[in-house]
């Protein structure tokens, strides 16, 4: 006996009515202009890169108390100890009564700027090792903005440390009447920018902090010693005198000395008059050249 046929209800082919597709209205011209105004421009992106790198270095400096203490302790000890050691034997012809502490004070101020700026650029090696700079370079900022951000951050740290040491200027015989603040600020800023540019250019090629310290000791220490910071140009031999005249750090030391003691006092301590008035142009060229070299080094493809 055959089983009764089972009737399967046919599916509702019509089903529910399909929903109408959502129509996207095009943005009006006012909405488009508002969106474009909210998007940051190229200049704003460059400035944001500079500002972030600058503030990062400054904040990191204040979070390391040992660096703040060392920023003051090292130059003070150097100035007093070296000054006391040379006090009995230092003589400059035509500047009787000048003690070594007063003579060496501008050189120590420049030393603070020099070593602070260079040691601050060691962070370039550390940031590359940790991958931070690679992420910054992959951002919208240009290579030049990265260099300017690192240079301004390192220069700000160097100028802060030098400003703290300048509080001891009255002990070095500096008076308000002889102080030239615009010249002092200009010379220190240009010196810091040039030295940080040099440090960034070298740090980008050196892979380790130990190698960076070795290169800096070979390059920067002789530059500072032969700048007129420890002994006057007048007392140097002919060959050494020419090296000192071509040394850009000489213009930094002489600029600080002229800003602190005046032009007449600067000549009295035995410095050459050939560089008087040329400090700012030479240091401006020095800063421009080394910041440009730093930008070229950072642009190098690895």
UniProtKB/TrEMBL annotation:
Location of the region described as Disordered in the Swiss-Prot/TrEMBL record: 1-35
Transmembrane region(s): 68-91, 103-125, 146-169, 181-206, 218-244, 280-298
Domain ABC transmembrane type-2 per the UniProt entry, residue ranges: 66-301
Cellular localization per UniProt: Cell membrane; Membrane
Keyword Oxidoreductase listed: no
Membrane association type: Multi-pass membrane protein
Key words of the record: Cell membrane, Membrane, Transmembrane, Transmembrane helix, Transport
Protein's UniProt keywords contain Protein transport: no
Annotated InterPro entries: ABC2_TM, ABC2_TM_bact-type, ABC_2_transport, Nod_factor_ABC_transporter
A Pfam family of this chain: ABC2_membrane
Family: Belongs to the ABC-2 integral membrane protein family.
Name of the protein this chain belongs to: Transport permease protein
Native organism: Archangium lansingense
């Amino acid at each position: 006996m055959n089983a009764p046929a089972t009737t399967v209800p046919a599916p509702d082919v019509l089903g529910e009515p399909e929903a109408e597709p959502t129509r996207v209205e095009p943005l009006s011209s006012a909405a488009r202009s508002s969106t474009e105004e909210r998007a940051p421009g190229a200049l704003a992106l460059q400035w944001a890169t500079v500002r972030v790198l600058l503030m990062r270095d400054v904040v990191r400096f204040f979070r390391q108390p040992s660096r703040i203490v060392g920023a003051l302790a090292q130059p003070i000890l150097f100035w007093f100890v070296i000054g006391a050691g040379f006090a009995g034997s230092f003589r400059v012809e035509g500047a009787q009564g000048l003690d070594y502490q007063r003579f060496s004070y501008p050189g120590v101020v420049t030393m603070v700027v020099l070593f602070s700026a260079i040691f601050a650029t060691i962070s370039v090696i550390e940031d590359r090792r940790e991958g931070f700079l690679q992420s910054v370079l992959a951002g919208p900022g240009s290579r030049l903005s990265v260099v300017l951000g690192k240079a301004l951050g390192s220069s700000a740290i160097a100028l802060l440390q030098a400003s703290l040491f300048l509080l001891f200027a009255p002990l070095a015989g500096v008076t308000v009447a002889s102080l030239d603040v615009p010249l002092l600020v200009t010379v220190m800023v240009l010196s810091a920018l040039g030295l940080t540019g040099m440090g960034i250019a070298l740090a980008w090629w050196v892979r380790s902090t130990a190698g960076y310290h070795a290169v800096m000791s070979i390059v920067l220490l002789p530059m500072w010693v032969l700048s007129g910071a420890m002994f006057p140009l007048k007392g140097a031999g002919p060959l050494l005198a020419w090296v000192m005249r071509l040394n850009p750090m000489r213009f930094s030391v002489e600029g600080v000395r002229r800003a602190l003691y005046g032009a007449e006092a600067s000549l009295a301590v035995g410095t050459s008059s050939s560089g008087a008035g040329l400090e700012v142009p030479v240091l401006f060229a020095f800063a421009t050249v080394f910041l440009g070299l730093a930008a070229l080094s950072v642009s190098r493809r690895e």
